[in-house]
Each structure stands twice: as C-alpha cells, then as structure tokens.
Design a protein that fits this description.
Order of helices and strands: HHHHHHHHHEHHHEEHHH
Number of helices: 15
Shape: globular
Largest sheet: 3 strands, antiparallel
Strand order of the largest sheet: 1-3-2
Distance between the termini: 20 Å
Number of strands: 3
C-alpha cells in the first residue's frame, strides 16, 4: 500500500518543474532575448515530456489493485456528474477538514514561493544565484518530505496525527522567515534551514490529505475529490497573495523595552502562522471513519488481499471481470 507515497510523487512532482524554473529561469530570463530563449527551452521540454507520456501511459490494470476497488467494481459504482460529487463530498462527515488542511498547505507553500526573493533578502541573502538555489531547495524539500512522510502514513494510516504534527511544525518553521532579532541581526543560515524545514513540514500535508479525503468519501470519484482540493487550494492561495503582500509592509515588534530580546516579525509571516494555527484547531476535530481502509481490510484489521496473493490471482480476476469495463 503506497497510496500516499504515490500521491506525493504525482501531486508534488510539479515542484521539480518550479525548482528547474528557479535554476534555469533565474539566469536566463533577465533580458527580453533571454526570456524568449527560456520560453523556447520550456516548449522543447514540454514536447519531450508529452511524447514520453504518450509512449509510457498505461490503462488501468486488468484486475483491481485493491479490495476496495474490487468492491466498487462488483457493486457497479458509476461516477456521478462533478457537481453532484461535490455536493456529496461536503455532505460527508470528515471531508471539510482534510480539504482545509490541503488548502492551508498549498496556500503557505505558494505564497512563500511567490515572495521568495523578499523572504531571502530579510535574512541578508541578496545574491540572485543564492536566492534561486534556496527557492529550488524549498521546492525539492516539498517533494522529498511528501515521499518520506507519505511512506510513513502508508504504513501506519496515522493521517490525523501526522497532519497535526506537520501543521504544528509548519507554524514553528515559518517564524524565522519573518523574524529579525535586533541584538543578533540577520541570520541567513537559520533562514535557509527554516525554508527547507517548511518544505518538509508543509509539503506532505497535501498528498496525505488528498488520500484522507478519498478515504472518508469512499466510494467516491478520486479524481473529483482531488480536483475540488486543487481548485480550492489554488483559488484561496491566489486570493491570499495580495493580502500577504499588504501584510508584509507591516512589522510587529516584541520586547521593545528589553534590548537583548527586542525583535520584530513581518506581517505576512504572522498571517501564514495564523492560517496554520486556525487550520490546526479545525483539523484537530477530525473524527470520521476511514471507509476505504475498512474496505481494504478484514475484521481483524489485516488486509484481505496481500501483494503476493493479488499477483497470483490477477489472471483469474481478469478472466472473471473481463466483461466489465474497468
């Protein structure tokens, strides 16, 4: 069972494209001719990836890959229209909390990525190459964190515990991105570690909660579930960008009368920490059955179809269901 891991790879691998844009675009797109060359390079890469996708793309497996998918097939489940699916999702207990966590994660990572130059300058990092490397590292950390933590969730099914831990960690690592301690000054090393930590903490929330939402809404259309999350996440993050830009113009000073502790924090970081904190409180109320997990497991909580048995039975299942469109 590698659902969360697979989702992390599929969902967060676009971060590799963004990281490449930081590294390649940062040096090429500095002039009009350079920008034109950059667009030409993107076009060539897109063409190559598209051809590779057509060559390697596969149909669904001959036999259902899990007990839950087999159950859906036997019951003849058909995917309803998208609008009807959305109504069902929001009527399902437990759906709104993974949706909120997904939106929180994608909003934070999108906003930090959008303002990476300003964030780095706060810590004294002004060299463009260093900024581009930091931005690329942040995007790669999102992918790596999703794979590592997603793998743990696959083994344990601890969706709630892991999500809460990630949200709590996100709150703490956000603070150095906008904090200036007057007695110490700028701290570029701390800023870089905090940025990479943010990618590792916030990034995994998306694939984990994509799978959690599918689990609680089973036997729903998985594509529709993740479409709702992506639409909501990107819409909210786009609306938050101008708000974060305005908030970044303000500083909040603490311990003004104690020189050794005197420090200030930027308003945009305060905004993001508040979003993570509100999401943490809201998500802590999650208490819904994992319907898909239950369908995949027996009464003794052990999976009914082990990998070896599934491989042995695949030809039989393929023959049994050959008349069914799978």
């Amino acid at each position: 069972d590698e659902r969360a891991t697979a989702t992390a790879v599929a969902l967060n691998f676009n971060q590799i494209g963004i990281a490449t844009a930081f590294l390649v675009g940062g040096s090429m797109a500095t002039t009009a001719p350079g920008l034109a060359s950059y667009f030409g390079l993107i076009t060539a890469f897109c063409l190559a990836v598209t051809i590779g996708t057509f060559v390697q793309f596969q149909n669904k497996p001959e036999a259902p890959p899990s007990s839950s998918e087999l159950e859906k097939l036997i019951r003849g489940e058909e995917e309803p229209p998208f609008v009807e699916s959305v109504k069902r999702f929001f009527a399902t207990p437990g759906f709104s909390r993974p949706l909120a966590a997904f939106i929180c994660s994608i909003s934070i990572t999108n906003i930090v990525g959008a303002f990476i130059d300003e964030v780095m300058e706060r810590g004294g990092i002004t060299d463009q190459l260093s900024i581009d490397l930091a931005g690329a590292g942040f995007e790669i950390a999102i992918l790596v964190g999703g794979i590592i933590i997603g793998g743990y969730v696959d083994r344990t099914k601890e969706y709630k515990t892991v999500t809460l831990a990630c949200l709590l960690s996100t709150m703490f690592v956000l603070i150095p991105l906008g904090l200036t301690e007057h007695a110490i000054g700028k701290e570029p090393a701390l800023l870089i570690f905090a940025l990479l930590g943010l990618g590792m903490a916030a990034g995994p929330v998306q694939p984990i909660n994509a799978e959690l939402a599918v689990d609680v809404t089973y036997p729903s259309d998985e594509t529709a579930v993740e479409s709702v999350q992506q639409i909501g996440g990107n819409l909210i993050s786009a609306l938050l960008v101008p708000i974060a830009a305005l908030a970044a113009e303000d500083d909040f000073e603490f311990f003004k009368n104690t020189p050794i502790l005197d420090s200030d924090i930027r308003g945009d970081v305060v905004l993001l920490v508040a979003i993570a904190a509100i999401t943490y409180v809201f998500f802590s109320g999650f208490d819904a059955p994992l319907k898909r997990t239950l369908a995949d497991c027996g009464d003794d909580d052990t999976c009914q179809v082990e990998t070896e048995k599934a491989n042995d039975d695949a030809p039989k299942l393929a023959t049994l269901f050959k008349s069914v469109t799978w």
